[in-house]
Amino acid sequence: VAMGPDPEPWELTWVGPGRIECARAGVLVAGFCDVTGSAYRTDVEWLASIGVTVGCRPERFCPDDPITRGDAASMLWRLFGAPPADPSTPFADVYESDPWGVAVGWLWREGLVTGRTADAFAPTVALTAEEALALLVRLGTAEGLPEPTGLSGSVTLPAMPADGVGEVGLSLSRAEFAAILHRWVAGVT
User: Which residue pairs from 2-11 have beta carbons closer than 8 angstroms and sit at least 24 positions apart in sequence?
Assistant: First the structure.
């Protein structure tokens, strides 16, 4: 029996403080036990195969968790070869020692990201679909790539209603962001 997209509690084993592992380590997809039945399995496999993601915890990708602004920055930085960068930024909430510190520094110096405020990047806040699209458009323009198009399928970005009133600011899951990156790059290459 294959595990579902999110392992049930009995499919995980507690091995010590802060360490929970997959009970059936033989059932891994790209090193993760929580994407075996996911609709985004191939997208996550692709991200892991090219070194763009290391997951959220050992053996876990956490596909249904919101993608944070910091994690998205890290994935994009790795996607573009993890270029050396000065991690200093004007953001009081981003430190050199953060897992996303160098990534945010690179994106900020390239003019690709802004903070939620002048001095706060909000790396642990969920990335919205609109922020993801804006980031990919800026990154594509800076790198000479086409704008992200053809992101069809089960991933859709919310459209702004004609009257300008509606639900915006919806966060993306880690799996949805993986699918968007995969389809964007597939459309570019």
Answer: 2/27, 2/36, 2/37, 3/27, 3/33, 3/34, 3/36, 3/37, 4/36, 4/37, 5/34, 5/35, 5/36, 5/37, 5/38, 5/39, 5/63, 5/64, 6/34, 6/63, 6/64, 7/33, 7/34
The residues near 26 (Cβ < 8 Å, ≥ 6 apart) are: none
Q: What is the pLDDT of residues 116-162, one digit of tens each?
A: 999 999 999 999 988 998 888 888 888 877 666 544 444 444 444 44
Specify whether the CB–CB gap between 183 and 177 falls below 8 A.
no
* Direct distance between the N- and C-terminal alpha carbons of the chain, in angstroms, rounded to an integer: 37
Question: What SS3 class is residue 30?
Answer: coil
Please give the model's pTM, rounded to 2 decimal places. 0.77
| DSSP code per residue over 102-151 | HHHHHHHHTT----SBTTB--TTSBPBHHHHHHHHHHHHHHTTPPP----
